[in-house]
Design brief:
Radius of gyration: 20 Å
Number of domains: 2
Catalytic activity: uridine(1498) in 16S rRNA + S-adenosyl-L-methionine = N(3)-methyluridine(1498) in 16S rRNA + S-adenosyl-L-homocysteine + H(+)
CATH superfamily of the largest domain: SPOUT methyltransferase, trefoil knot domain
Family: Belongs to the RNA methyltransferase RsmE family.
Strand content: 15-25%
Shape: elongated
Order of helices and strands: EEHEEEEHEHEHEHHEHEH
Subcellular location: Cytoplasm
Strand order of the largest sheet: 8-7-6-10-9-11
CATH topology of the largest domain: Alpha/beta knot
Number of strands: 11
Helix content: 25-40%
Organism: Jeotgalibaca dankookensis
CATH class of the largest domain: Alpha Beta
Function: Specifically methylates the N3 position of the uracil ring of uridine 1498 (m3U1498) in 16S rRNA. Acts on the fully assembled 30S ribosomal subunit.
Length: 252
């Protein structure tokens, strides 16, 4: 069944019908060519997720009724935030799409010392709108019950200020991999408990500067390597999320 992530909370989805319009209506009617009686998953921002059945169409809307609650939970048991230095081309879109599929709770882009790309305020607004749409589509495709929040920070200081409430904080640093460091990431995962939060910072193509690493360490971030190979900027976050999924969803 197709899943649709709703932007508004549903207070009484069992007792009332749900009306969809706009992009959801277009996708149901014109892309999926669904008919009356077709069942879909609906998920609201409060992670209420249920099976709904189409009962009627108008020219611009589709009306659905509740059938049953969805008992399956597809969310990671820990809240993982990925913070990635701005990358070139469409790499950021790839990170957002795949990080969503792999269970990230929040995805942050930030301007790093070695970021080639520079965004002005007008471009940031357009990019975040597009990124959020990519995250929503990826959440629907991967049958999640939550759409990750996508945000952008203009500098490292803003990221550091936002990091104070996280339970665990790591920064992937290629210099650690070069000298053979391979235990801190795994050790941290053994310490993370269900319901806790984990923030992991990654650099852009040129990595993070020594000054940035120093600032991160001063705020309690632990530098770590990600194995013996040096990973691309768009690969490292996905490697980390896959390892987290194995630790908390497959291993346990």
């Amino acid at each position: 069944m197709q899943r649709y992530m709703l932007t508004e909370s549903l207070a009484d989805f069992k007792g009332t019908t749900t009306e969809l319009s706009g992009e959801h209506f277009h996708h149901i009617k014109n892309v999926m060519r669904s008919k009356v009686g077709t069942k879909v998953y609906l998920t609201d921002p409060n992670r209420h997720s249920f099976v709904a059945e189409i009962i009627s169409f108008t020219d611009q809307t589709v009306l659905l009724k509740w059938v049953s609650n969805e008992e399956r939970n597809s969310e990671l048991p820990v809240e993982v935030t990925i913070a990635s230095g701005l990358t070139k081309g469409d790499k950021q879109e790839l990170i957002i799409q795949k990080a969503t599929e792999l269970g990230a709770n929040q995805i942050i882009t930030f301007a790093s010392n070695y970021s080639v790309v520079k965004w002005d305020s007008k471009k940031v607004a357009k990019k975040i709108t597009r990124f959020q749409r990519i995250a929503q589509e990826a959440a629907e495709q991967s049958h999640r019950q939550q759409v990750p929040m996508v945000d952008h920070f203009n500098d490292l200081k803003t990221l550091l200020d936002s990091s104070k409430n996280y339970t665990h904080k790591l920064v992937a640093y290629e210099e650690e991999s070069k000298v053979g460091e391979k235990s801190r990431f795994a050790d941290t995962l053994t310490k993370v408990k269900s319901g806790e939060s984990l923030l992991i910072v990654f650099g852009p193509e040129g990595g993070l500067s020594l000054n940035e690493i120093t600032q991160l360490q001063a705020e309690g971030f632990v530098t770590c390597g990600l194995g013996p190979r040096i990973l691309r900027a768009e690969t490292a976050p996905l490697y980390v999320l896959a390892a987290i999924s194995y630790q908390f969803e497959l291993l346990n």
